[in-house]
Amino acid sequence: MEPGDVPRSAGTRLKELRLRVGLTLRDVEARSLKLAEEKKSRDYFISRGWLNNVENGSYTPSIYKLYSLSVIYRDSWTNVLGFFGLRVGDVGRDQALFGLPNTYLVQKEPLNSESVALPAHPTEDLQLDRTNLLSRLIEIWGEIPVPLVQHLDLRRSLYGYIGLKDYTMYPLIRPGSFVQIDGNQRKIKSATWRTEFERPIYFIELRESYLCSWCELKDGHLSAIPYPNSPTEIRRFPYPQEAEIVGRVTGVAMRIAESSAP
Q: Among the residues of the chain, which ranges form H helices?
């Protein structure tokens, strides 16, 4: 769609929305006037001539007038913004494109954030004490706030969950952590690493489970190398018959202490 087509398309959708709720241009004008008086700002006011131009694709509304339209049409603010190509769900992903020089506190999402439903009853073969791919974890039902999942880029990355009883990479990666996986990095690198943080960590699919660890390939076997302080021993599997590299771990989200002091 060409840039000039966006306002025309958005205007058409706004007109369809207005007609769907049974309002005339005059009705919208009257209601917006009442809202502007309530808000004590003319920015919320929408004249019928101006709205007609918006519906024809001549004008693009300001944020105040978009707010008015979403209120008057009883539609969600995010949906109306979407008419103009603005996707609120992309904010977190787009913010991740740019780092900031100073440490800062991430702001909490609004309390009225929408949620999505996921399954709430674990199936027999799904246990949170075991390491799993996130694609299997959505077999658990429950309502999860949209802001919790909107930062995940499932088109480009996989996400894994480290089981509550999986201490393979402890304390570098603690049980209960979530890891981001780059599925394009599946070749195990052999090198001398200056620090443990430079050594690649891989997410491994076994016949009936998953594993997250350092890896070595030798004589047709894959060795899953645990962190030195881990109580877990080195495990060896015929490769690739019994072990397959899902990808390299590129990010970790984990808790390093309980949320409240004892």
A: 5-20, 25-39, 48-55, 63-72, 77-83, 91-95, 134-137, 146-149
- Candidates 61, 47, 76; CA nearest to 10 is 61
Residues 234 and 224 sit within 8 Å (Cβ to Cβ): yes
Q: Give the residue from 144, 109, 141, 105 showing the smallest Cα distance to 122.
A: 141
Question: β-pairing, 178-182 with 235-238?
Answer: unpaired
Parts of the chain belonging to CATH 2.10.109.10: 115-253
- pTM score above 0.70: no
- Cα separation, 215 vs 211, whole angstroms: 11
* Pairing assessment for the beta strands 158-161 and 202-206 based on DSSP bridges: unpaired
Report residues of the chain scoring pLDDT below 70.
1-7, 89, 92-93, 96, 99-100, 102-129, 131, 133-156, 258-262
89-96 long-range contacts (CB < 8 A, ≥24 apart) are 89/146, 89/150, 91/150, 92/147, 92/150, 92/151, 93/150, 93/151, 93/153, 96/151
Q: Is 119 helix (H, G, I), strand (E, B) or coil?
A: strand
Q: Which fold has domain 5-86?
A: 434 Repressor (Amino-terminal Domain) (1.10.260)
Query: Domain 115-253 classified CATH 1.20.1250.20?
Result: no
Measured CA to CA, the distance from residue 112 to residue 120 in angstroms comes to 21
Residue found under tokens 């030195």:
228
Distance between CA atoms of residues 236 and 154, nearest Å = 30
At position 151, the amino acid (one-letter code) is H
